[in-house]
Design goal:
Blueprint: H1 13-21, H2 26-33, H3 47-50, H4 56-68, H5 71-78
Length: about 80
């Protein structure tokens, strides 16, 4: 679990996701989360390029898997 800073805020999870998985193509993430993940963006875009514009559904899926430690495994499996 992440520790809160002096101002009681937690580190930016979106920044952690982008830093660790930013080079992942949307094509790969759509294999995991379905064809509606990051709707409106080409499958060749990188996660880091669209992360800030993701809708709440797509973003919450990523955050949940990142927080539980499952995102890296799911990406590795979908990339095969």
């Amino acid at each position: 679990m992440s520790k809160a800073g002096l101002d009681h805020r937690h580190p930016n999870k979106d920044g952690e996701i982008s830093g660790k998985h930013g080079n992942t193509l949307l094509r790969t993430l759509r294999k995991i989360y379905g064809p509606s993940f990051a709707a409106g963006y080409p499958e060749t875009e990188k996660l880091s390029d669209v992360l800030a514009a993701l809708n709440e559904t797509s973003l919450s899926q990523l955050r949940r898997d990142h927080q539980t430690g499952h995102l890296a495994h799911k990406i590795a499996k979908a990339s095969k």
